[in-house]
Design goal:
The structure holds 2 protein chains of 2 kinds.
Chain A: H1 2-16, H2 19-50, E1 55-61, H3 67-80, E2 85-89, H4 91-101, H5 106-112, E3 120-125, E4 140-144, H6 149-199, H7 204-241, H8 253-281
Chain B: H1 3-7, E1 19-28, E2 31-41, E3 46-50, H2 57-64, E4 72-77, E5 80-81, H3 90-94, E6 97-100, H4 112-122, H5 127-140, H6 156-168, E7 174-178, H7 186-201, E8 205-209, H8 213-218, E9 222-227, E10 230-236
Parallel strand pairs in B: 3-8, 3-9, 6-7, 7-8
Antiparallel strand pairs in B: 1-2, 1-4, 4-5, 9-10
The chains are: A alpha+beta, B alpha/beta.
């Protein structure tokens, strides 16, 4: 049975000449482009993560607030905002930071002492913009920064990654459509022969074997071609990205595996579906 | 070839009929091609099926080899109910029947010899033996010298004979022929008829759909006349 399928399948392939390899490459292109897209999306992952990182927002409280009032204010805010982690920064620590960040203040801070500094609270949160509500609080002198460049870059990268996934999905849909049309036309070309074989008493496996071989062989070529295209393209893009300081890696192994499996499964599944439909419309 | 495949119609239908049809109706869209046909054919019979074009001859044969299913009614071939067969059961039925198609149904990409040998593969005949048997049948039909030709290089009559060779090569016990002499000249038609008679004489049941009156008159065989989807006459020809 296998020998018959291989021999007859080879005859079918030979009768198609160069058409089968060309179709295989045509199928490999959308699949490999989808693979490239997913690989590039992987590069964006660390940037996308920036958008998920927590930011620190500084809140300066009114100097007239005593220690107990500050404690009570901090507890109140922590109770109202479950996503916030609040910590009061001691005046000495603040003075040290200021003298480190702004050395010209060192003399003033030494002369006046840290008591002149307003009390400061740091709020660690994933949503820094939400802290802006404190601007209307009577106990608060200033709030900032409530926006984060990292976060913005991360969010843009996240949206771009979604777009890339959509593009990859569209390419895969194109590959599915292509495989369906290809196999359908291939069956249409051999429909009469298949119908005759069925009428002569050939079993389904005898009928389907050669046709599946004739579809699987180009599918394997498509699988290999898509993997090669992806490895070469992603490698080339990685070299382009390297001078920009991006640590771009090669395509992940699972992307290459998924490409190879897709390139084989799509046409073979399409062949099964088409043969099944053909059998039901030609009296089995 | 297995003994079972050669003997083919091992089990007979009810009351020993090879073919038994009861109340068979076939509709195409809104057109009724066959209307409640009842028919029984015994083993070893030679039966002509005749009638005007569109009477339902080809449809009746197609129902017998299960290329189509009836809209209503029962069809039994050699004890097997055909109209309710699943797709996986059909190959076994079809391997019992030799069908000669009106439009030949030859495989375009195969030579004459390959067209005849490929059916033997379904019967499990080894390639060498299949080639030998196919050559013998082709020789009997005067086509052995064209064994390497492609079907498109053959005349209509030659293609018809290849189709006949393919139907006979596995020695089926039931042969259904749809207009087998349609593309043959008078001499070849007579030769074919003699061949079918030989096969029938050896015990095979032969059903021939034809509108060739000369063919009907040449043999005193049972003749069924189909008219507007019903059997109008069942007896010797001429009525």
């Amino acid at each position: 049975m296998i020998r018959h399928s291989l021999a007859e399948g080879w005859l079918l392939l030979r009768s198609r000449g160069l058409v089968s390899p060309i179709l295989a490459v045509a199928l490999a292109i959308p699949i490999s482009l989808a693979g490239v897209t997913v690989s590039v999306r992987q590069w964006l992952a660390p940037v996308v993560e920036l958008g998920e990182r927590e930011s620190v927002v500084t809140v300066l409280l009114h100097p007239r607030l005593g220690a107990a009032e500050r404690r009570s204010w901090i507890d109140r805010q922590a109770a109202h905002h479950s996503g916030w982690r609040l910590r009061e920064v001691g005046r000495e620590e603040l003075a040290e930071r200021l003298s480190r960040w702004f050395p010209y203040l060192e003399e003033l801070l030494a002369r006046e002492g840290p008591e002149m500094l307003p009390p400061m609270v740091e709020i660690v949160t994933a949503e820094p913009t939400g802290v802006a509500v404190l601007r209307d609080d009577a106990a608060v002198l200033a709030v900032g920064p409530t926006s984060s460049v990292n976060r913005m870059v991360g969010r843009v990268a996240g949206r771009f990654a979604v777009v890339l996934l959509v593009v990859a999905a569209a390419l895969m849909a194109g590959a599915l459509l292509f495989a369906g049309v290809w196999v359908h036309l291939e069956l249409h070309r051999n429909a009469e022969e298949i119908a005759i074989m069925r009428l002569m008493g050939a079993t389904e496996s005898t009928v389907r074997g050669p046709f599946l071989v004739a579809v699987t062989a180009p599918a394997l070529i498509a699988a290999a071609t898509s993997v090669v295209i992806t490895v070469v393209t992603v490698g080339w893009m990685a070299r382009l990205a390297a001078p920009l300081g991006l640590t771009a890696a090669g395509p992940p192994w699972w992307v290459l595996l998924a490409e190879a499996v897709t390139a084989v499964v799509l046409p073979v599944a399409a062949a099964h579906v088409t043969l099944e439909r053909h059998a039901s419309t030609t009296g089995g | 070839m297995s003994t079972e495949a050669l003997s083919g119609l091992g089990g007979l239908g009810r009351r020993g009929h090879v073919i038994r049809i009861r109340g068979v109706t076939k509709d195409y869209e809104r057109r009724q091609i066959l209307r409640g046909v009842d028919l029984s054919i015994d083993p070893g019979e030679l039966v002509f099926l005749t009638g005007p074009s569109g009477a339902g001859k080809t449809t009746l044969l197609r129902l017998l080899y299960a290329a189509e299913r009836p809209t209503a009614g029962e069809i039994w071939i050699a004890g097997d109910r055909v109209d309710t067969m699943t797709r996986s059961e059909l190959p076994r039925l079809r391997r019992k029947i030799g069908v000669i198609f009106q439009d030949f149904k030859l495989l375009r990409r195969k030579t004459v010899l390959e067209n005849v040998t490929f059916v033997l593969r379904f019967h499990g005949v080894p390639p060498k033996e299949a080639g030998r048997r196919a050559y013998q049948v082709l020789k009997r039909l005067g086509l052995h010298h064209r064994q390497s030709a492609m079907p498109e290089a053959l005349s209509g009559g030659e293609q018809q004979r290849v189709a006949i060779a393919r139907a006979l090569v596995y020695q089926p016990r039931l042969i259904l022929a749809d207009e087998p002499t349609g593309n043959l000249d008078a001499d070849l038609a007579a030769e074919l008829l003699s061949l079918l008679c030989d096969i029938n004489y050896q015990g095979a049941t032969v059903v021939v759909a034809t509108h060739d009156h000369a063919l009907l008159e040449s043999l005193p065989a049972r003749t069924l006349v189909l008219h507007r989807g019903t059997i109008d006459y069942d007896g010797r020809w001429p009525p």
